[in-house]
Amino acid sequence: ELQHATLPSCCRFGDAVTPAVQIANGTVDCTMPPLPLGQVILSLSNAQCDAFAPVQRLTVLPAPIVHFVQPRFGYSAGGTTVTVQGVLFPVALTSSAVCRFGGPNSALQPAVVVSSSLLTCATPAYHGTTPSDLRIFLSFDGQHFIDADVLFTVLPDLVVGTVLPVSVPSL
Measured between alpha carbons, how far is 112 from 83 in angstroms, rounded to an integer? Predict the structure, then answer.
């Protein structure tokens, strides 16, 4: 997403040109095509897409890969700490890292990127029908999500009525 004084109609990532889509007053969305890893210059163009002005240098990173998520279940009250193990987690973007349990309208949960292969996040409270299976998504910039390809099962909260006996002899 870019804010620009006059709305451009084309975006260029290196040599690849894509349309600029207006999403709000003075803001356009440029969809980045598949690019090789490394540095690329983002440039914007006028209505004819014939003259481009460089706007930003971007770094194309390898996509993170998730290997393991633990635990894969928790209770609807939330607060279960989930550990995600994988590779290529971009540690430079740790302040924006989030987890999402469920679809695009689900709450974002702050994630702690411990290393390039480990992150943790806590599950949110869940108010839907339980048990329920929710997909886990990760984002390292708070906007673009990768599917961890794992289901997290939300179970009904445990309700304890009475515990008896209330005292026991020591062994």
Answer: 10
How far is Cα 34 from Cα 51, in angstroms, rounded to an integer?
23
125 forms bridges with which residues in the sheet?
A: none
Contacts of 149 (CB under 8 A, 6+ apart): 66
Q: What are phi and psi of 95, to 5 degrees?
A: -70, -20
Q: Indicate the pairing of strand 81-87 with strand 118-122.
A: antiparallel
Tell me the pLDDT tens digit for each residue of 20-32: 888 877 788 888 9
* pTM of the shown model: 0.73
Q: What values do phi and psi take at 90, rounded to 5?
A: -75, 95
pLDDT value, residue 141: 87
Give the residue carrying structure tokens 């794992």: 150
How many whole angstroms separate alpha carbon 103 and alpha carbon 124? 13
C-alpha span between 159 and 42 (Å, rounded): 55
- Give phi and psi for 91, each to the nearest 5: -65, -20
Pairing of strands 98-101, 108-115: antiparallel
* Residue whose pair of structure tokens reads 């009250």 in the numeric block: 77
- 138/160 Cα distance (integer angstroms): 34
List of the chain residues with pLDDT < 50: 2, 4
